């Protein structure tokens, strides 16, 4: 006759708990291994909102737009992103394609959301998007703007010309229409017009210079 060990009834709950903890620990290890193995090495940074991943795959960061490299704040945004991802691997979630067919995603290094870090630095602009972190990222971007960080500081966001005080003509872009208008000190909207140099707007010393750059005089300016 074979002998089968039957644990006392009082030990059964303890044994069940041990088995449950063991299974939970194995699942935890599996998930961690899976997360680690899915991380993709970063091999380059193009600008402040675009990475190059292993396999030469380009990936844009959702919820943000960085200045062009030749605009105010462009080099700083790129440097900020390089500081966050150089030599590291990233996990990507909520990946989509933008209107130009470019891959976009929320991008993590460990538990750090890189999209959030870039917006909190102030070197990029918030871009409306629908993800699981939309509300949080919008609030972070608003806080950076309110604190006048990065491109929202006097280096790129100007109502007066700190470099050439004698050059007073404001070149302004209409984001909705793409129109380029310039404003003279006597124009109605001159005082409220902000030069956002991260968008390519700039100051001009003469109307001729503004016109050469493709700007036309605003209708808010008095006719001579």
Strand line-up across the major sheet: 1-2-3-6-5
Helix content: 25-40%
Task: Just name the CATH architecture of the largest domain.
Answer: Beta Barrel
The CATH class label of the largest domain is Mainly Beta
Number of helices: 5
Order of helices and strands: HEEEEHEEEHEHEEEEEHE
- Average pLDDT value? 87
Q: Structurally, how many domains make up the residues?
A: 2
Distance between the termini: 116 Å
In percent, how much strand structure appears in the residues? 25-35%
Principal-axis shape:
elongated
Radius of gyration: 27 Å
Can you summarize the main beta sheet? 5 strands, mixed, barrel
Low-confidence stretches: 1-5, 19-37
Task: Name the descriptors.
alpha+beta, five-stranded mixed beta barrel, single chain, 2 domains, 224 residues, 5 helices, 29% helix, OB fold (Dihydrolipoamide Acetyltransferase, E2P), four-stranded mixed sheet, disordered N terminus, 14 strands, elongated
Description:
The chain is of the alpha+beta class. The chain folds into two domains: 115 residues, Beta Barrel (OB fold (Dihydrolipoamide Acetyltransferase, E2P)); 61 residues, no CATH class. Helix content is 29%, strand content 25%. The chain contains five helices and 14 strands. The strands form four sheets. The protein has a five-stranded mixed beta barrel with strand order 1-2-3-6-5. It has a four-stranded mixed beta sheet with strand order 13-10-11-14. The longest helix has 27 residues. 29% of the residues are buried. The N terminus is likely disordered.
């Amino acid at each position: 006759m074979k002998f089968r060990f039957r644990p006392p009834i009082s030990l059964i709950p303890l044994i069940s708990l041990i088995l449950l903890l063991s299974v939970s620990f194995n699942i935890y290890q599996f998930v961690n291994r899976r997360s680690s193995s899915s991380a993709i090495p970063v091999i380059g940074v193009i600008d402040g909102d675009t990475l190059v991943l292993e396999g030469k795959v380009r990936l844009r960061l959702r919820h943000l737009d960085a200045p062009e490299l030749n605009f105010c704040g462009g080099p700083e945004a790129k440097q900020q992103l390089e500081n966050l991802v150089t030599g590291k691997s990233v996990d990507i979630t909520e990946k989509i394609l933008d209107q130009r067919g470019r891959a976009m995603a929320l991008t993590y290094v460990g538990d750090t959301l890189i999209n959030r870090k870039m917006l909190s630095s102030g070197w990029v602009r918030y871009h409306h998007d629908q993800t699981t972190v939309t509300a949080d990222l919008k609030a972070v971007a608003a806080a950076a703007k309110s604190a006048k960080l990065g491109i929202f500081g006097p280096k790129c966001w100007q109502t007066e010309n700190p470099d050439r005080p004698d050059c007073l003509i404001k070149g302004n872009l209409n984001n909705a229409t793409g129109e380029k208008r310039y404003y003279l000190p006597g124009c109605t909207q001159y005082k409220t017009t902000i030069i956002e140099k991260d968008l390519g707007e700039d100051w001009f010393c003469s109307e001729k210079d503004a016109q050469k750059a493709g700007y036309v005089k605003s209708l808010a300016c008095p006719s001579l």
